[in-house]
Amino acid sequence: MTVMKTSMRNFLAHKGRMALSAVAVLLSVAFVCGTLVFTDTMTTTFDKLFQATASDVTVSAKGASDTGETTSRTGKPPVMPASVLDEVRKADGVLKAEGTVFSTSATVVDGDLDKLSPSSGAPTIVGNWNSNEARTMEITSGAAPKGPDQILVDADTADKHGLGLGDEIGVITVVGTHHARVSGIATFTVTNPGAAIFYLDTKTAQQTLVGRTGVYTNVNVTAAQGVTDAQLKQSVADELRGGYKVQTAKEVADANQQNVNGFLNVMKYALLGFAGIAFLVGIFLIVNTFSMLVAQRTREIGLMRALGYSRKQINRSVLLEALLLGGVGSVLGVGAGIGVAIGLMKLMGLMGMHLSSSDLTVVWTTPALGLLLGVVVTVLAAYLPARRAGRISPMAALREAGAPADVRAGVVRAVSGLVLTAAGCWGLYAAATADTAKDGSAWLGLGVVLTLVGLVVVVPLIAGGLVRVLGAVLLRMFGPVGRMAERNALRNPRRTGATGAALMIGLALVACLSVVGSSMVASATDQLDKTVGTDFIIQSDNEGALINPQAVKAVKETPGVARVTEYKLLEATLTTPDGKVTKDETINAADATYAQDLRTETVAGNLADAYRADSMSVNEDFAEAHGIKLGSAVAVDFEDGTTARLTVRAITSDDVVIDKGAMYASITTAAKYVPADRMPLDLMLFATAEKGQQDAAYKALKSALHSMPEYTVRDQTDYKQALKDQIGQLLNMIYGLLALAIIVAVLGVVNTLALSVVERTREIGLMRAIGLSRRQLRRMIRLESVVIAVFGALLGLGLGMGWGATAQRLLALEGLTVLDIPWPTIIGVFIASAFVGLFAALVPAFRAARMNVLNAIATD
């Protein structure tokens, strides 16, 4: 009980000093809990949607996916004849059956040809209005579509794009472009996560999406009273006698949820990873806080020991303070986490994914995990300072200064740190010299961990020398004030090192990712310059979307274009000469001119020969694995066609970036074995202008595709910029998430300075008494903060560039051979670190300058 009272008294006595440590715990716990609440809420939202929209039993056409995706490589959804609807109605237990037709391969535009697709990545769905949709949507304006010139729009899409009754809409599909006017607006009665949905009448939907009437993509079946979904499924399956996919509502919902969970899990674990980094940085802050508090209470602890407190009681007292700190920070963090989740929901709403606050899901494991993490991390971080406190002897009460440093512990720490750092450097070297990326990645991971831990351990040894160098470069120009700031930073290398190391972690990751991202862009750009021999690349901005025949025709008829190369992907099963069967292989089918458009290296043969009749190419690894040589025959069983026996005419090098590992054949060869109605659409087109007509052809191509805004024409400069923008957006998102760790590190600098000011209260009073002005005092503390921040930045940026350069060596094994150091980013981060130091020093410097001189001198 006495220990508890002592801990509570000390905690309350230093509550101001504990506040920043509590904020660090709060932020980390809030990020963890916010991530879990947010992803749980998204799961709940999708669960409700899938359960509400699934009929008791769904019959789908052959080739439809389990998730109900109604699209294919041909651009048309898989369909079944309308006669299936009559057969389903005959099955026992059927109350009602209704045919529907939907597609996710359509592009919808307004009257100004602006796309009405969601910005969140959710699908655009076009289908027929039916009673199953009426269960989850209510027409709140206008009426359902009743003719070819009418279309119904969901309310979220209408609000986002300013659509009203009577507005013209164009639906672009592989069949052509269908124009209609908005006849009604329907509002979801469940949460719509962001899909844009458009409804036509049944016949118009069939004609627009498939090109003919009398077909459906699905049949929605409702069970009669007393009939279970499982019984109804069996009855319908028996009636149809195979050939179609029959699923219960639960099976459809589960398949959809499994598909969504893949995305949610990636997002959840990525966010939790950044929260873990913030926790790691927070450990430094907590260790520093308790170390300084223990040092400042050396005499007090010595007196407690003299009065009979045991080492165990002193140790327990400090750990109880940590427990209180972790508990308070974690409880507040759990509450803040719900606020973070709501904020993320609002952010997703701005991006087009609507999540209702009524679906906010907080399961008991989330606050429990947040509390456990916060408390455990805080107590573990305080363990070493607590042990140090327990070792303080009663004689320490008689000393003016704190207890002398443990020289032996310092030597052990230095040796351990150097050994770990050396081992980490060796791991990075092993990664850089590895023969395969798979082997090298394991060494890279080991090297990153060991160099990070090693530097954290050895950083007090480095701090003295590096701070002196920084002092000579940055501080000496400020005269005596600068020299005092340097001495203050050198006074306790362990403290300075720990504070700088907290900042080092976040900046090391920033530097590493910057180097990797910049190198990827530079390598891809270099490959484009070396290998791409065409002027223009035409593709959809929607990932995986295909190019319809109207666009192909428009490109081929564009004046100033000398040649156009079509490029398709076909799925196939291959049987190699060694008798092995490999499934789910992709054949890249293109026109013969693709050999000119992409100058791919070969290790045997000529790529142009692979486009001859009944010929193909394979990649180097595949050839080696299956003993394939020039002239070998490979049986190719096309997924949507028959089996071909193709002769290998070329073996391509794996030392490339573009189309790495691809197997090529001509479209003419593929057309012999795949029926025209099953032939996939083009993934992209390559166009080459007539000599001297590049600028005119570029403008003409854009004009030709103006009415089809889903496609983008890019010359090589545009394509390089698009690659740079994509990687830049990804890096900016990562930098934003790493900002949490940087914020916690800044709190560490603030806390260190604040506690340091308290520790030096008498010294500051004496300096003020002998003539140091308030302005000079504030400058001294700011300069001390800047040198600590710059010290951490140098370590972090240097370490991160080492990691990035090593990672690039692994990427070089995959064809990304250019190492590019983004010096503007590195220099910008370094300069920003100095400003971080200035910002962190504002409050401590202001408090120090406000001290009463006489009271400060009288401080014991």
TrEMBL record:
Signal sequence span per UniProt?
none
Membrane topology label: Multi-pass membrane protein
- Is Membrane among the key words of this record? yes
Mainly localized where? membrane
Q: Which UniProt keywords apply?
A: Cell membrane, Membrane, Transmembrane, Transmembrane helix
Q: Which Pfam families does the record associate with it?
A: FtsX, MacB_PCD
| Cell compartment(s), UniProt | Cell membrane
The ABC3 transporter permease C-terminal domain is annotated at: 274-394, 737-853
* Sequence ranges assigned to domain MacB-like periplasmic core in this UniProt record: 19-237, 499-702
Q: Report TM segments.
A: 269-295, 318-342, 362-386, 407-430, 442-475, 496-517, 733-758, 783-803, 823-846
Q: To which protein family does this belong?
A: Belongs to the ABC-4 integral membrane protein family.
Xref: PANTHER family: ABC TRANSPORTER PERMEASE YTRF (PTHR30572:SF4), MEMBRANE COMPONENT OF TRANSPORTER-RELATED (PTHR30572)
Protein name stated in the entry: ABC transporter permease
What is the species of this protein? Streptomyces bobili
